[in-house]
Design brief:
Shape: flat
Structural class: alpha+beta
Helix content: 55-70%
């Protein structure tokens, strides 16, 4: 018989407790499953928040912000307008963002919903960033919404939306908007015509014809109207002219011309074109005076241009003046907006085309007008030279007109004065902008113009600051090319730097010279800047010796060429020789002389200068700071005369010899070097030298 285990009874209690616990867990899990199965779910199978409470609505709105923006906005508005103050505040804070999301989704195709979202945010949060962004977007989106409404035949909605689009665009709607609006008006006209409402149909056509992008353009509207036939179109054009509607008249004339082309009636077509200049001029006046708003303001130049084709000289005078004013106004606006390339083009259009043509047209229109009044002496001399021995007055005027269009002189005109006043600041800002973009080559001529116009003016100061900043950054970035380009330009235009910048300038030159040891000619170029800017220093003296030794050696290594000057003249020098040099290249050049004296000079690109030295036999070398350019090396016998030399770069290949980077030097002759202790005078125009009196 087995004995009873005393510990068995002790195990019964914990086993019973465990069984009860796990039984309770099972029953709870089953009840939870039943409740969840009965709970509402969304389309994705997720449990829905309790939408009977404000908090539940806000949770749902947040969850579906991007999945269902319209539902999110609806729930948020319900809470915002509800009695729960705390939840309403949360809803009002979230509503602008959710309306913006709804707008972004709806504006792709559901423009009615997008416009509704815009109206809602204007009512509830007009000062929010989202409201501002939506207003800006609607300016563009309303154009597409208008097109969509027109396609769906919702003409009242389309008309209202086009009004919004035009209001947003001011007086310069885009061409595509104009063409879309014309298509909408044509559709309305066809609908009313089909319904027998002929007066209404004609009214929509007249309204479409008033919108003109440019005179005589063959737009879809013109092609549609041309189906009436050339004679009918021209009759409508004359009726519009008589009623004082030049824009509509131009549209009908364009349709008439297109129709006459199809009908093969060239004489009638030419007759249409002859009517255009006067109408275009009238239309341009209307745009300028704010009386015509169906021609984009940006297109007014096209109408002035048509006026310049008139056979009436008085019409041409007004048209050219209108062009001049328009070009300068556009240039000034583009300059303020930082659109420098466009502004430069319009400044040139005004100064080199419209104003000269206006001046010459005045001579045709008024026999008493003195076309020669104020013309500079040098321009008059060029007119006489080009006109030949027995010129007619007409020929002389034609020659003058050509010189004016070449920019030799700009006649007096208020727009010319406004342009000239604006140009220094314009080129300074453009040059500084290009400097910041590290487009140094493009910036140079703009900065040069600003500095030379007024070296102490504010535009020049801005350019100098931009130059110094560019040199500082190029040196800091070890940009040798940038340092070479900017420091050489600085020295050429400004000479020595201001004391506050002198140390940085010298350090930049020395660092560049050190980095260019493997390129000896470029190194000596940087050393020459050191000589120019810091003369008399031991550093400059050592640099000068190195330049002479290495530069002459480099020149002598090239094959010797014939070296007699083509032109020499006795200018009364006493035991002195002078060489007047024109650098007709885009490079700085070094000119070395070894003979009775040993020296060198550096001449800036496209500049002229005169060198005075002792007469005798010299070895002459001309070197550009680019090893790829072969130097000039010759033996010269320089007598006590003034000699004239011009240096260019020639590319040789086969039988061809092409001039590279060559142009005429500008400015006058400067004294580059003189024999110590001797004083001479250099004629700025000719380069001739005489002893100083």
């Amino acid at each position: 018989m087995m004995s009873e285990n005393p510990y068995a009874r002790l195990l019964v209690i914990p086993i019973a407790i465990g069984a009860l616990f796990f039984g309770w867990l099972f029953i709870s899990w089953r009840c939870s499953m039943a409740r969840n199965a009965a709970a509402p779910r969304d389309e994705e199978g997720r449990l829905m928040p309790d939408l009977s409470t404000a908090e539940g609505k806000l949770k749902r709105a947040e969850r579906v912000e991007y999945e269902s923006p319209s539902e999110s906005v609806r729930l948020t508005i319900e809470v915002a307008d509800g009695p729960d103050a705390a939840s309403a505040a949360k809803a009002r804070a979230a509503l602008p963002r959710r309306l913006h999301i709804q707008y972004q989704y709806a504006s792709r195709s559901r423009w009615e919903e997008a416009e509704s979202a815009l109206r809602e945010i204007e009512k509830r949060a007009p000062a929010s960033d989202e409201a501002r962004q939506m207003r800006e977007s609607w300016k563009k989106d309303s154009e597409y919404a208008a097109e969509a409404a027109a396609r769906q035949g919702k003409f009242e909605d389309a008309g209202r939306l086009y009004e919004t689009a035009f209001a947003a665009a001011g007086n310069s709607p885009e061409d595509r908007v104009i063409r879309g609006f014309q298509a909408y008006l044509l559709a309305r006209s066809r609908r009313d015509e089909a319904a027998g409402k002929m007066a209404e149909a004609d009214r929509w056509i007249d309204e479409a014809a008033a919108w003109v992008e440019q005179p005589m353009s063959v737009s879809p509207l013109v092609q549609e109207l041309s189906k009436l036939g050339g004679a009918a179109n021209r009759e409508k054009a004359h009726a519009a002219t008589a009623a004082g509607h030049p824009a509509q008249a131009l549209t009908w004339l364009g349709a008439a011309r297109f129709a006459f082309d199809a009908e093969r009636k060239p004489e009638e077509r030419l007759a249409c074109e002859a009517e255009v200049p006067a109408l275009a001029l009238e239309a341009a006046r209307g745009v300028r005076d704010g009386k015509i708003r169906t021609i984009p303001a940006r297109s007014i130049a096209n109408f002035w241009r048509e006026g310049t084709e008139s056979k009436d000289a008085a019409v041409r005078v007004e048209a050219f003046e209108g062009l001049a004013v328009t070009f300068v106004e556009e240039a000034l606006a583009e300059s303020r907006a930082g659109e420098f390339v466009q502004a430069d083009s319009h400044f040139r259009d005004a100064l080199d085309r419209a104003i000269p043509d206006w001046w010459m047209a005045r001579a045709e229109a008024d026999a008493t007008f003195d076309v020669w009044a104020g013309v500079p002496k040098e321009v008059l001399a060029e007119v006489e030279k080009r006109s030949g021995p027995k010129p007619t007055p007409e020929l002389r005027r034609q020659v003058l007109g050509g010189l004016l269009r070449d920019g030799r002189w700009t006649p007096p005109h208020p727009s010319a004065a406004a342009a000239r006043a604006a140009l220094p600041d314009f080129y300074a800002r453009w040059g500084a902008s290009l400097m910041a973009e590290r487009k140094f080559s493009q910036a140079e001529w703009m900065v040069r113009g600003a500095i030379r116009a007024d070296p102490k003016g504010e535009p020049a100061k801005a350019c100098i600051a931009a130059l110094e900043k560019g040199i500082r950054e190029a040196a800091g970035n070890q940009d040798l090319e940038g340092v070479v380009q900017l420091t050489s330009f600085y020295v050429a235009e400004l000479g020595a730097p201001a004391p506050a910048f002198a140390v940085e300038f010298r350090n930049a030159i020395n660092a560049a010279a050190e980095g260019l040891k493997s390129s000896p000619m470029r190194r000596i170029f940087m050393l020459s800047l050191l000589c120019d800017v810091f003369p008399g220093t031991a550093e400059a003296s050592a640099a000068r010796d190195e330049i002479l030794d290495k530069g002459l050696a480099f020149a002598k290594a090239a094959a010797e060429q014939p070296g007699e000057s083509g032109l020499a003249m006795d200018t009364g020098l006493k035991d002195l020789a002078a060489v007047s040099v024109e650098n007709a290249t885009g490079y700085h050049i070094f000119i070395f002389y070894e003979g009775p004296e040993r020296l060198f000079v550096r001449l800036n690109p496209f500049r002229k200068g005169t060198i005075v030295l002792r007469p005798g036999a010299y070895v002459v070398g001309v070197v550009a700071p680019e090893e790829k350019i072969r130097p000039y090396h010759a033996s010269r016998n320089l007598g006590a005369l003034t000699h004239w030399d011009k240096y260019t770069i020639v590319q040789e290949g086969g039988e061809r010899r092409d001039m590279l980077g060559t142009s005429s030097a500008s400015g006058g002759f400067l004294l580059l070097r003189c024999v110590p202790g001797v004083k001479v005078e250099v004629d700025v125009e000719s380069g001739a030298v005489r002893m100083e009196k």
